[in-house]
Design goal:
The protein is an alpha+beta fold and about 425 residues long. Helix content is about 40%, strand content about 20%. The protein is globular and about 65 Å long. α11 crosses α12 and α13 runs antiparallel to α14. The longest helix has 21 residues. It binds a DNA duplex (18 and 18 nucleotides) through α3, α9, β9 and β12.
DNA sequence: TCTGGGGTCCTAGGACCC
DNA sequence: TCTGGGGTCCTAGGACCC
């Protein structure tokens, strides 16, 4: 059996942890730049605040109902996420836990006797809540996809389920699948849902009756086959190794306000490159390819949801590296190539790919090897920035004015990761 | 006026190899 | 005039996730 543990309204729960006065009150958390709503407490959901909808559209409801609004505080969420995951690792052992996202983890339960499963689910929920203060829902079933189905049903009716649901019999499986709309199935997004509805497949149960050949043809080949097998109760999606390195690392941001000058673009690109290189070094890797993209601001506003054009460029390095200055140079050159005078930009990003572990970087016959020693300098910079303050040490190319910096009007303190922002008890 | 950020996997098709 | 069979690697693009 496989369990999925999923934190309830995770970002909102994190904010509430240090603001107990907001318990039972409507709370929302906004995306970077205070653009969209990315987390809602149950109370906010009940008021009809839409998920992933733009903040400005929900503003009337928010103001009328005195909803508390937060900008996203990733230092806080990252730290609390670590505590939740660590609790699970202590309970089950590191090798049984697969962290799937900031607020979700799968747990392999191959040694638990079937009669104990239900109790175990409750025990997971209670322990995480007691140790971290974060409420979670637990779904358990024979496959990952079915565990997700169970988890969704557990969350949907919290009073009845106590945030715990187990699918352990054939009857339960069928019942659960019949209650699950096709667009709520893990792995079915907007396009597939539309397609399936045209074929009169409206619930997870309908889909589970389809045969393999059909799924291969209509749901993206092997991906669709795996999904349907899992719905039938046959495990196909394996547990992943925890320690795999990222294959792509990106840092991308909307600008606080539209940008028209090359200097700001270059500063932003240099800053994002530094961030991305930091992430790269944290997993002890180097990248051989660096890409830069700029997104223009859409000028005609007739569409209800408009994205500007994206222009991209990438550079292959002679030798894979994680040294910030070696990455900034080509990044800025690309930014200069992409930039067009007179165009209005709203977003930029840097992507590192072709990532290899530092232990297996392939040398280049024609390139001096000595640059590798500068890795030590990077470690010093990372340590200072991590322990003191972000960007205490930075490259001049990153600039000092930062007019393009994103907007965050409702940021809460970094309660758990900065000494001078600790929660004070009066 | 105002709509996020960071990832994964898979497929098809072209270039190239012996 | 006649022109095989079996591969690999890379890239772009499409789908999905939270």
């Amino acid at each position: 059996m496989i369990a999925i543990v999923d934190c309830n309204s995770f970002y909102c729960s994190c904010e509430r942890l240090f603001r107990p006065d907001l318990e039972q009150k409507p709370v929302v958390v906004l995306s970077n730049n205070d653009g969209c709503i990315i987390s809602r407490s149950d109370e906010a959901k009940q008021l009809g605040v839409a998920m992933a909808g733009p903040y400005f559209k929900a503003k009337p409801i928010i103001e009328q109902n005195d909803v508390t609004v937060f900008s996203s505080n990733y230092n806080l969420y990252g730290d609390l996420s670590w505590r939740v995951m660590e609790t699970l690792r202590v309970m089950f052992g590191t090798e049984k836990v697969e962290v799937y996202s900031v607020d979700e983890a799968f747990i392999k339960l191959d040694t638990t006797p079937p009669t104990e499963i239900e109790n175990l689910a409750t025990q997971i929920k209670n322990t995480v809540e007691q140790w971290t203060g974060i409420k979670v829902s637990v779904g358990i079933a024979a496959t990952k996809v079915l565990a997700k189905v169970a988890n969704r049903l557990a969350k949907k009716n919290k009073q009845l389920t106590n945030c715990v649901a187990v699918i352990h019999t054939e009857t339960k499986r069928i019942e659960a699948l019949k209650k699950t709309n096709i667009d709520s199935v893990w792995g079915i997004g907007f396009s597939y849902a539309e397609k399936l509805k045209k074929h009169r497949i409206n619930t997870a149960y309908d889909l589970s009756l389809k045969d393999i050949v059909w799924c291969k043809k209509h749901l993206g080949g092997v991906v669709g086959v795996r999904l349907v097998q899992e719905l039938k109760g046959i495990p196909c999606i394996t547990m992943h190794d925890e320690l795999t390195d990222k294959k792509m690392i990106a840092t991308t941001r909307m600008f606080g306000e539209a940008v028209t000058d090359i200097e700001s673009i270059k500063e932003a690109v240099a800053t994002y490159t530094s961030r991305a290189a930091e992430k790269l070094r944290r997993q002890n890797c180097s990248a051989k390819t660096i890409g830069v993209f700029l997104v223009t601001k859409q000028q005609n506003h007739n569409a209800s949801f408009n994205r500007g054009a994206t222009i991209t460029s990438h550079t292959k390095l002679e030798v894979a590296t994680s040294l910030t200055h070696l990455l900034i140079k080509p990044a800025i050159a690309m930014a200069e190539r992409l930039f067009q005078q007179g165009t209005v930009y709203k977003k930029a990003g840097v992507m590192l790919s072709n990532i290899v572990n530092d232990t297996s970087v392939q040398g280049n016959l024609f390139v001096d090897e000595s640059t590798n020693k500068q890795r030590f300098l990077m470690d010093v910079i990372d340590n200072i920035n991590f322990s003191q303050r972000d960007d205490m040490l930075k490259y001049a190319a990153s600039g000092t004015t930062r007019n393009w910096k994103m907007q965050q009007l409702f940021h809460s303190p970094k309660y758990t990761s900065r000494w001078n922002e600790l929660c004070l008890v009066q």
